[in-house]
Amino acid sequence: MAGRLDGKIIVVTGAASGIGLGTVERLVAEGASVVAADIQDEKGQMLEARFKGSVAYIHCDVTSEADVAAAINLAPQRFGGLDGVFNNAGNGGVMGPVETTDAAAWRTTFDLLLTSCFLGTKHAVPHLAARGGGAIINTASIAGLQAGYGPVAYSTAKAGVIHFTRTVAAELAARKIRVNAICPGLIATSIFGASLGMPRAQADQMAAMVAAQGGSAQPVGRPGLPSDIAEAVVWLMSDAGSFVTGTHFVIDGGITIGPAHAWDPTATSPFAKSLGMTPDQMAQVAGMSAPAADSP
Ligand SMILES: NC(=O)c1ccc[n+]([C@@H]2O[C@H](COP(=O)([O-])OP(=O)(O)OC[C@H]3O[C@@H](n4cnc5c(N)ncnc54)[C@H](O)[C@@H]3O)[C@@H](O)[C@H]2O)c1
Questions:
Q1: Atom 27 (ligand 1): residue with closest C-alpha?
Q2: What is the DSSP pairing of strand 9-13 with strand 84-87?
Q3: How many other CB atoms are found less than 10 A from the CB of residue 275?
Q4: Distance (Å) from CA 282 to ligand 1 centroid
Q5: From 12, 137, 138, 191, mutation site for ligand 1 pocket: most ligand atoms within 8 A of C-beta
Q6: Rounded to whole angstroms, how far apart are CA atoms 113 and 130?
Q7: Does domain 9-257 have CATH number 3.40.50.720?
Q8: DSSP-H helix ranges across 1-115
Q9: How far, in Å, from the CA of 112 to the mean position of ligand 1?
Q10: Which residues line ligand 1 (CB under 6 A)?
């Protein structure tokens, strides 16, 4: 059966783990050749060996322009061209109260999460244009849309990713280069442990824990998985997504629909609490449960 990405050549950053890894697996399954870029060399080399001939691994620190340029340039060198880039590498960035946040750490967070998307775009444009167009996808986050889903620097950088996507999509539309962002919700990956400074092996265990126990965090009632994001990447990279540019896709199991009491009957509404309403009364007011048959 024909793959949805047969013959396409795509660069993925942050490819050794989590969303990047899950996406490389889907891209290859759909017929693409992939340059997998990361700083976890052992995992990257294992990925190349696993998909021999379809994946080329390169050590690439996305905060380095030379590294990003080398990763992008590897696509035409190894596979003969470039059709898409998934700017995805990241971590939780600098944490803690703003008044004690180190300015250099703030800048490093922006280099990793936002400037990396600019660099991946900058170096991809000539190659994509040479093929008559292509697709760029940037990993943003629901933290870039609302407060409460990540540290301040992380969330601000991700908001920047969403607007960078929109504005650069306008610039590149005439060259038939589509640019979109994805805003994942809570996805079971190592990012949580890695951001807390755990060694990778321990962070990987934490990803498994989130996968096992993270279901109740969102309305759909199951944890988010890298494959949920990978499916959207495949669609956007494919010709099926050819009418879509300059926007962002929220893939979060509904977590940003509203506060927990909007979709979880056991959650307490702060509003109900402040009025002294019972959970049942508040649920009725909020439309959580059908009114009794004899109610007006
Ligand atoms: N997991 C979530 O819940 C979630 C939610 C929203 C957004 N995201 C975003 O998804 C992206 C992928 O994260 P993930 O959840 O798969 O985490 P992950 O830790 O499993 O994977 C991130 C990968 O990026 C790599 N990386 C880190 N710094 C790098 C650098 N300087 N250069 C190159 N590679 C580097 C890591 O080695 C790792 O392989 C990130 O941008 C993250 O902010 C994740």
A1: 90
A2: parallel
A3: 11
A4: 39
A5: 191
A6: 27
A7: yes
A8: 18-29, 41-50, 65-79, 103-110
A9: 10
A10: 13-14, 16-20, 38-40, 60-63, 88-91, 112, 139, 141, 184, 186-187, 189-191, 194
Ligand 1 probe mutation, 67, 91, 111, 119, most atoms within 8 A of CB: 91
Active-site amino acid positions: 154
pLDDT tens for 134-160 read 999 999 999 999 999 999 999 999 999
Q: What letters, b where the CB count within 10 A reaches 16 and e where it falls short, cover 181-202?
A: bbbbbbbbbbbbbbbeeeeeee
Q: State the residue for tokens 């301040």.
A: 152
Report the predicted TM-score, pTM, of the whole model to 2 decimal places: 0.95
Residue 93 and residue 154 in contact, taking contact as beta carbons nearer than 8 Å = yes
pLDDT tens per residue, range 14-54: 999 999 999 999 999 999 999 999 999 999 999 999 999 99
Tokens 């007011």 label which residue? 285
| Ligand 1 atom nearest 112 alpha carbon | 31
Domain ranges for the chain: 9-257, 259-296
List CB contacts of 217: < 8 A, sequence separation 6 or more: 186, 223, 253, 255
